[in-house]
Specification:
By secondary structure, the protein is an alpha+beta fold. Helices cover 33% and strands 24% of the residues. The chain has an eight-stranded mixed sheet with strand order 6-10-11-18-17-16-15-14, with helices on both faces. Strands 1-2-3-5-4 form a five-stranded mixed barrel. Strands 7-9-8 form a three-stranded antiparallel sheet, with no helix packed on it. A hairpin with a 2-residue loop joins β2 and β3. α13 packs antiparallel against α14. It is elongated, with a radius of gyration of 29 Å. It starts with a helix and ends in a 19-residue tail after the last helix.
């Protein structure tokens, strides 16, 4: 029998003894009037003499995370959502049946305690139990050396154990919540309306990505999990909701990596009468607000590198970035075959259907993106790879669009929206042709969206920000799986 199996068997035996003694091992609720964190905050700096004058009895509850037994007395640490506190359980201080129950309790069990406070000889703030209650019996042992595990997949698969044992992991997800809250506050203060749009859509749109497909029995039709909320949010702008945002879950049927999870969180917002240039300034402001709320600084460390968020951020065109950082020859901008030859020479996959603009953006992804450490707005994307963006007035082969890169990754994508229904329909038709040629990420035709544009959409700019990647940056996390509570995993073999 393995060690873990023996421990589980022992705990089953204790559970049966508890039941035989009339103890309910999984009672409902417990009246808590103070947390571990509050105890430490209120009494942590109080000297022993003043602490002796504190006679109030406090009720606290949490998981037992350590235990030292000395016959008729024990020291335990319990942990709740705010931290951990030491408790002292002595046979002559609690009821006999309670001490009998306590002897059958293990690390991992939840316990409720009532008592007064004192300091031990080592100076540790401690609660002396005068009453105790088993709140939940744990049947599996917690890992003994969780920090030493090299199998990170176990941490992702059993995130509940990861959160119990690793405080830094818990702090990442607390920070994630605060980041999302800061974003929400920023936009609400600027008169944006938070909305919700469909996650199951008859036509997936808003991004060039491969969708997940399902079937609705009652309607007798195929539906797709959304790849982006964009087209529905812009319908709302048509309807007169001039400033909208959505913190949304998107689904893309693509590969897994440290940068990609098939289910991920985006924040998209749309602002009537604005341009993509207006959104650059707004993006600097929103990141400034997030950093103030979460990091308290404009400069952070990410994976051993310093990233400076102080505005103004660098702005450069995609073509100029290829010239400066990629050090490419000028001929690739005029000659598709020269661009394709360079890409193939670098090991980049090129399809016959790939247009010149697509090849140039693939070269950018390979030669430039990994080197964009500090916040950088890259502009001037080819129309061919921007089917929903407004054409540039001076060069219709390019669009009024930027992508934001930080830490060598794309963090946001924004553009002045295409609101010309004729041009939009032609772009959809071009995407359909690509799909018919085998491009499973190309957009579908969305006639209803074209109809919406025919009713008139005001000049508008919109942006999508990758929440997971922002959290990665601000928590110094190397993988997207570190900032998603339950990332998708391949089945165990």
């Amino acid at each position: 029998m393995g060690k873990s199996s023996a421990i589980i068997e022992d705990r089953v035996s204790k559970l049966n003894k508890l039941k035989a003694n009339g103890v309910i091992p999984y009672p409902a609720g417990y009246q808590v009037d103070i947390t571990a964190g509050e105890i430490l905050h209120r009494f942590g700096d109080m000297d022993e003499k003043d602490l002796e004058q504190e006679t109030e009895i406090y009720a606290v509850a949490g998981r037992i995370v350590s235990r030292r037994d000395f016959g008729k007395a024990s020291f335990i640490h319990i942990k709740d959502r705010t931290g951990r506190i030491q408790a002292y359980v002595r046979k002559n201080k609690v009821q006999p049946d309670q001490f009998d129950t306590f002897k059958l309790m293990d690390i991992g069990d939840f316990i409720g305690l009532k008592g007064t406070l004192f300091r031990t000889r080592t100076g540790e703030l401690t609660l002396v139990a005068e009453d105790l209650k088993l709140l939940s019996k744990s049947m599996r042992p917690l890992p003994e050396k969780w920090h030493g595990l090299t199998d990170v997949e176990t941490r992702y698969r059993q995130r509940y154990v990861d959160l119990i044992m690793n405080d830094p992991v818990r702090e990442v997800f607390v920070a994630r919540s605060r980041i999302i809250q800061a974003i929400r506050e920023f936009f609400i203060e600027r008169d944006f309306l938070e909305v919700e749009t469909p996650m199951m859509q008859p036509i997936p749109g808003g991004a060039t990505a491969r969708p997940f497909k399902t079937y609705h029995n009652a309607l007798g039709m195929d539906l797709y999990m959304r790849v982006a909320p964009e087209l529905y949010l812009k319908r709302l702008v048509v309807g007169g909701l001039e400033r909208v945002f959505e913190i949304n879950r998107n689904f893309r049927n693509e590969g897994l990596s440290i940068k990609h999870n098939p289910e991920f969180t985006m924040m998209e917002f749309y602002m009537a009468y604005a341009t993509y240039e207006d959104l650059m300034g707004l993006t600097e402001e929103v990141f400034g607000h997030i950093l103030e709320q979460v990091a308290g600084a404009q400069v952070i460390e990410y994976q051993g590198k310093t990233i400076d968020f102080k505005p103004p951020w660098k702005r450069i065109s995609l073509f100029d970035s290829l010239r400066e950082t990629g050090e490419v020859e000028e001929k690739i901008f005029d000659d598709r075959e020269a661009a394709a030859a360079l890409a193939r020479g670098l090991g980049i996959s090129i399809q016959e259907r790939d247009g010149h603009g697509q090849i140039l953006t693939k070269l950018f992804d390979h030669l430039v993106e990994p080197h964009l450490l500090h916040p950088t707005f890259v502009t001037g994307y080819p129309t061919e790879v921007s089917p929903l963006s407004r054409r540039n007035d001076l060069d219709p082969e390019l669009t009024d669009r930027f992508e934001l890169f930080i830490g060598g990754r794309e963090i946001a994508n924004a553009f002045t929206e295409l609101n010309d229904p004729v041009d939009q329909k032609q772009r959809f038709e071009s995407q359909v042709a690509l799909r018919d040629a085998g491009d499973k990420e190309a957009l579908f035709m969305d006639e209803d969206y074209v109809t919406a544009l025919e009713y008139g959409m005001p000049p508008t700019a919109g942006e999508g920000i990758g929440i997971d990647r922002v959290v990665m940056l601000l928590t110094d996390s190397p993988s997207i799986r570190d900032v998603i509570l339950f990332p998708q995993m391949r089945p165990k073999e």
